[in-house]
Specification:
This protein has one domain: Spore Coat Polysaccharide Biosynthesis Protein SpsA, Chain A. 42% of the residues lie in helices and 18% in strands. It has 8 helices and 9 strands. The strands form 2 sheets. A 7-stranded mixed beta sheet has the order 3-2-1-4-7-5-8, sandwiched between helices. Strands 6-9 form a two-stranded parallel sheet. Helix 5 packs parallel to helix 8 and helix 7 packs parallel to helix 8.
Length: 238
């Protein structure tokens, strides 16, 4: 497999209405990307839908897990799967089209041009959020400000979940030491990469709130991120 082969990891839970559209949107780019779905035993038949897509598209893969184990563990599972198979670039992406597949080449290009990891950012110049209530935009924005202050990092969109990594970053971060499952996982991955000396580039994107399916946001996820940043400061990365 070529060093520059790109894998898109998409965790799913009750995303049956979105998986076919997402596969079409990614494969229509004709850029040779592979897609790995990590499904947490969705009761709505998401995994069955993905299995049908795999029969038509050799670029689509599925890892099915026994239950709802959290976003962070899904991505770590996917990262290890990607490393074992020699992918050069690994992308994190949601299945609900809040991340636009047409932005994928821009993230990959940022890594090809020298960044170690690229973030699809709502809060750099040119970035936007659509269809969110103003209160939620404010909460998300100030959450990023809070994280930047506590961790003393320059990333504008600290909770972003649309990212491209060079595989070297994922091989270097001690993934098994990351205890977080929600947005705190996204923050921790960025913090660990910076502490290990990797270079980041933020790419402006328009984030659109999901159209189909349900949001996975919860009070527990918010609390984990709020208190988790203090825990991250004490963690050893090298």
């Amino acid at each position: 497999m070529a060093h520059t082969q790109t894998l898109i990891i998409i965790p799913t839970y009750n995303e049956r209405d979105n998986v076919s559209k997402m596969v079409s949107a990614v494969l229509d780019l004709n850029l040779g990307y592979h897609i790995l779905f990590i499904d947490d035993n969705s009761p709505d038949g998401t995994a069955d839908q993905i299995a049908l897509l795999m029969k038509k598209h050799p670029e689509v893969f599925l890892e099915k897990r026994a239950g709802k184990l959290g976003l962070g563990t899904a991505y770590i599972h996917g990262f290890q799967w990607a490393i074992e198979r020699g992918y050069g670039f690994v992308i994190e992406m949601d299945c609900d089209f809040s991340h636009n597949p047409t932005d994928l080449p821009r993230l990959v290009k940022a890594c090809e041009d020298g960044a170690d990891f690229a973030i699809g950012s709502r809060y750099v110049r040119g970035g936007k959020v659509k269809n969110w209530p103003f209160k939620r935009i404010l909460m998300s924005y100030f959450a990023s400000v809070y994280v930047r202050m506590i961790l003393m990092i320059g990333i504008k969109d600290t909770t972003a979940g649309f990212k491209c990594y060079r595989s070297e970053v994922l091989k270097t971060i001690p993934l098994k030491n990351i205890p977080f499952k929600g947005y705190a996982f996204q923050i921790c991955m960025k913090y660990a990469a910076l502490k290990l000396g990797f270079k980041v580039k933020e790419i402006p994107i328009t984030f659109i709130d999901r159209v189909a399916g349900e949001s996975k946001m919860s009070t527990g996820i918010f609390k984990e991120a709020f208190f988790g940043v203090w825990q991250m400061r004490k963690m050893k990365w090298k």
